[in-house]
Write a structure and sequence with these properties.
Length: 490
């Protein structure tokens, strides 16, 4: 996940106060106070990577493969970001609590081959598990609409996506002027082209996007390139979707290779990017403060302003990153929930839709509660609405107990379900699906964003620049890292 600093001291704190007031710092200001950091706590490298998720880990290993020295700063105690795997201590079976599968693309296969980790065809189903459709707000059984043409609607959707081939790469290729269809709220786009039968599949991948029908169509369709697996491919386990036996193995291997140059449980305190050929980053690590001196900086975290508190943002950068917004999204693993092992609970609204035109549940709330390959364990996905504040672990646990209690009261679940549940694992994936509004897109936001690449020896990567797809992020990052060593910084 993103290394958003929890403690910002001294000058860095004052600078953030100025950002809130709409100010920024001059390009040549030196705001870092590194005079008290000893030589033994100073790290000299070619590149410093902020963030150890999909983008940051790939950037670090790619730089290393290019014979560059690298250090990664990651807030969590592991690499992997949105990829997280729980391994049951008894059965040793893995349960994915984040990224479940990847598109079958050359970059994905090459990345796993780099660490000699085998990939397998992904199958979304678990033998013996059935889905129970329930309105989580009323506690009553819901009946999905019958007779729709999911595959036909998917094909029609892909024909619309094919109109914008430049979007297959990244958001630097947004056409200007932006076509009106790409600025529509996604729900209006779906209605305009009669794509409603595809909504159940689209919404499956829209979990964590808030009310995804309000998201600009540009950002919604960016997630589904032409090579994206079709509904039938995913459900049948056919060609298109890949997974490892344990999806975190790739990040564990990268972490092992980086060794001490992966600074985990660490946050950025301050930064100075004013020099022509040097970036200085002061970092709080579990063993104390360290000073990183690097030729280049790669930021691989969601670029919302709160995540960039330790950055010395200037008058060009602040107005851009201030425009970004994100969604709150959480994943948890529970036992003793009262849910039968062979049941996945699907939150299907019956008159409680978040949008009257589509069967999408109200938020904040649970998307679904999934059975796993380990008896007794279920995992849930919980999301906020657009611009929803973040939620705490106790708040989400209470919401889950309330939901399960409601289903118990209507006899869908056994009496007392949820009262004594244990929350085994809980992760925040916030801010998720970082985005800007359609009016900003129309005004050339992404041109301004990508113009920052290379300025002040800094390069930017991650889902905000591509989409929430590891395959797309790795492909973008591969080109970014390769090109940044062949193109002079600005």
């Amino acid at each position: 996940m993103s290394p958003c600093p929890r403690n910002v001291f001294g000058i860095a704190y004052l600078l953030f106060a100025r950002w809130v007031a709409g100010a920024a710092i001059p390009d040549d200001a030196d705001v870092s106070d590194d005079s008290a950091i000893s030589a033994q706590n100073t790290i000299n490298v070619d590149v410093c990577v902020i963030g150890g998720g999909a983008a940051g880990t790939y950037a670090a290993i790619k730089s290393k493969d290019l014979k560059k020295t690298v250090v990664v700063v990651e807030q969590q105690d592991r690499l992997g970001g949105h990829t997280k795997t729980y391994v049951d201590p008894v059965s040793k079976k893995p349960v994915e609590l984040g990224v479940a599968e990847w598109q079958d693309t050359p970059i994905v296969r090459a990345w796993f081959a780099r660490f000699n980790i085998p990939l397998y065809q992904y199958n979304f189903t678990i033998p013996g598990v059935t889905s129970e459709y329930v309105d989580f707000l009323t506690g009553h059984t819901a009946a999905p609409k019958q007779g729709g043409d999911l595959e036909g609607a998917w094909e029609a959707f892909q024909k619309q996506v094919a109109k914008y081939p430049t979007l297959d790469n990244d958001l630097s290729n947004v056409p200007y002027p932006v076509p009106a269809d790409l600025l529509l709220p996604f729900g209006q786009f779906i209605t305009k082209y009669n794509l409603g039968d595809a909504v159940p599949y689209l919404s499956l991948y829209g979990e964590g996007w808030g009310n995804f029908t309000t998201l600009p169509t540009l950002l919604a369709i960016k997630y589904f390139p032409p090579y994206f697996f079709s509904p039938s491919q995913l459900l049948s386990g056919g060609p298109g979707a890949l997974a490892a036996k344990d999806n975190s193995l790739i990040y564990e291997a990268a972490q092992k290779e980086l060794g001490a140059n992966a600074l985990l449980s660490s946050t950025v305190l301050s930064m100075n990017r004013s020099a022509a050929d040097l970036v200085k980053v002061t970092v709080q690590t579990p063993s104390g403060k360290k000073l990183i001196r690097a030729k280049k900086l790669i930021s691989a975290i969601p670029p919302v302003i709160d995540n960039l508190k330790g950055f010395d943002l200037n008058q060009t950068e602040v107005p851009i990153f201030n425009k970004f917004k994100g969604h709150s999204w959480y994943v948890g693993l529970v036992n003793n929930s009262g849910i039968p092992d062979n049941i996945t609970l699907v939150n299907y609204p019956n008159g409680t839709n978040i949008d009257k035109n589509f069967d999408i549940p109200q938020l904040p709330g649970f998307y679904n509660i999934y059975a796993t390959v380990v008896p007794g364990l279920h995992y849930f996905l919980y999301g906020g609405n657009d611009a929803e504040p973040t939620f705490t672990q106790p708040q989400v646990k209470t919401a889950l107990q309330t939901t399960l209690g409601r289903l118990s009261a209507t006899n869908i679940l056994p009496k007392g379900a949820g009262k004594n549940l244990n929350l085994i694992d809980f992760s925040s994936h916030s801010p998720y699906e970082v985005y800007v509004d359609s009016d900003q897109i129309a005004k050339g936001f992404y041109n301004k964003l990508f113009a920052l690449q290379g300025q002040r020896n800094t390069y930017w990567t991650g889902a905000a620049f591509v989409t929430h797809s590891s395959a797309a992020i790795w492909n973008f990052t591969d080109h970014l890292v390769t090109n940044m060593w062949s193109t002079p910084a600005q």
